[in-house]
Specification:
Largest sheet: 9 strands, parallel
Number of helices: 11
Distance between the termini: 22 Å
CATH topology of the largest domain: TIM Barrel
Number of domains: 2
Bound molecules: pyridoxal-5'-phosphate
Strand order of the largest sheet: 2-10-9-8-7-6-5-4-3
Structural class: alpha/beta
CATH superfamily of the largest domain: Alanine racemase
Radius of gyration: 22 Å
Strand content: 15-25%
Order of helices and strands: HEHEEHEHEHEHEHEHEHEHEEHEEEEE
């Protein structure tokens, strides 16, 4: 891809040189490309990217450069973002609730795969050309995920079997899909879904072409190390056992685990109060740190001085506020920061490529607006 100026070597180097007073998302394209290649090597199937995790052109361009050619999109705007990065990109439109206008937009852009979880939504796809794949999304009570993208959508297995039969009758390429919930560490969650998928196909009397095992793969947050290989191995084995002769091809759609590790958010300490027990940062839950409220703190946090030197003091739990005038703008309590952290220092939140700039707001005139590309994150 095109690089019009030399990349800074690392976030610390950039911070020492520029001393920015607004938060920055540091993005390492090399880390993202490496992750994409690893996913492609590890699964016996197609790797797509769930665009909602981070839809920035820098991210999409680098995924295309790393060989990702199909994308999980949820809206016409995401489709446009993907096609800007790759005019030939394959679109999987996996938001199962669509207006008629959105269906038309998907048809116009040649969506290759659609997901449905409801008879009325399937009826809306009647104008879609029959070479398209339609994947029935089903849901089970969740286990193992940090929180749940899964429960908003998804038919019961009984309804899924009826929908799958109807998909086949309508002449679409039949498939099944699910999402086990995000930041899911437990291979057993996927296995349970794969076994249920086989039972649904059997009940419907339909041989499915593909099984979409969703996203949900865990990113490293400094606690339990994620093991995607274990998930893929368990999925492949469950697929072979449960489907036998009728084994479908696999595809996955990681969002978080694809992009999280490629970005670090740097937020500056604006003030310390109560004997430094209370910290005010220039980014918070209305900016790039929204998700920490829902998923909890990570351990991948460090502090550097304005000269870019790592603070080594003993870690002390703090109360941390963001920059807006809303008292809700507070991180989960107990973020441990080194005791020698000072006003003007930068707090580096690693592993923050997913659901950070994507959910950012400009509330109160703050927010995460700047992306800086770096050659490495350390
Ligand atoms: C959000 C979403 C994903 C990505 O989920 P992660 O937990 O970020 O991997 C994948 N597929 C669908 C349908 C989604 O809605």
């Amino acid at each position: 891809m095109q690089i019009d100026r030399p990349l800074a070597q690392s976030p610390a180097r950039y911070l020492a040189e520029h001393r920015p007073d607004t938060p920055i998302l540091f993005f390492a394209p090399a880390v993202l490309q490496e992750t994409a290649r690893r996913f492609r090597a590890e699964i016996d199937g197609l790797v797509t990217y769930a665009v909602k995790a981070n839809d920035r052109p820098e991210v999409l361009n680098n995924l295309v450069a790393a060989g990702i050619s199909a994308f999980d999109v949820a809206s016409p705007a995401e489709m446009a973002a993907v096609r800007a990065a790759d005019p030939r990109a394959v679109l999987h439109y996996n938001n199962p609730v669509r207006s008629e206008a959105e269906v038309q937009a998907g048809i116009a852009l040649g969506v290759a795969s659609w997901s449905v979880d409801d008879p009325a939504e399937l009826q809306k796809l009647d104008a879609v050309p029959r070479e398209a794949e339609v994947a029935v999304r089903f849901a089970l009570p969740v286990a193992g995920a940090a929180y749940d993208f899964g429960s908003k959508f998804g038919a019961t297995p009984e309804l899924a079997a009826r929908l799958l039969r109807r998909v086949a009758q309508m002449g679409f390429v039949p498939a099944l899909c699910f999402h086990p919930g995000t930041q899911c560490h437990d291979p057993a969650a996927w296995v349970h879904y794969v076994e249920t998928a086989a039972a649904i196909a059997e009940a419907a009397g339909v041989r499915i072409a593909r099984l979409n095992i969703g996203g949900g793969f865990a990113a490293d947050r400094g606690f339990e190390a994620p093991d995607h290989k274990a998930v893929f191995a368990a999925v492949a084995q469950a697929r072979d056992t449960a489907f036998g002769e009728a084994r479908p091809d696999l595809l996955c759609e990681p969002g978080r685990a694809m992009v999280a590790s490629s970005c670090v958010i740097a937020a500056r300490i604006k003030a310390l109060r109560n004997g430094a027990n209370t910290v005010f940062l220039n980014d918070g839950i209305y900016g790039g740190l929204t998700e920490l409220r829902d998923i909890g703190l990570s351990r991948l946090v460090s502090v550097v001085s304005p000269d870019g030197v790592l603070r080594h003091g003993a870690a002390e739990p703090r109360i941390v506020f963001g920059p807006t005038c809303d008292s809700l703008d507070r991180l989960p309590d107990g973020l441990a920061l080194p005791e020698d952290a000072e006003v003007g220092d930068y707090v580096l939140f690693a592993g923050m490529g997913a659901y950070s700039i994507a959910t950012n707001t400009g509330f109160n005139g703050y927010g995460l607006r700047q992306i800086e590309m770096v050659s490495a994150l350390e």
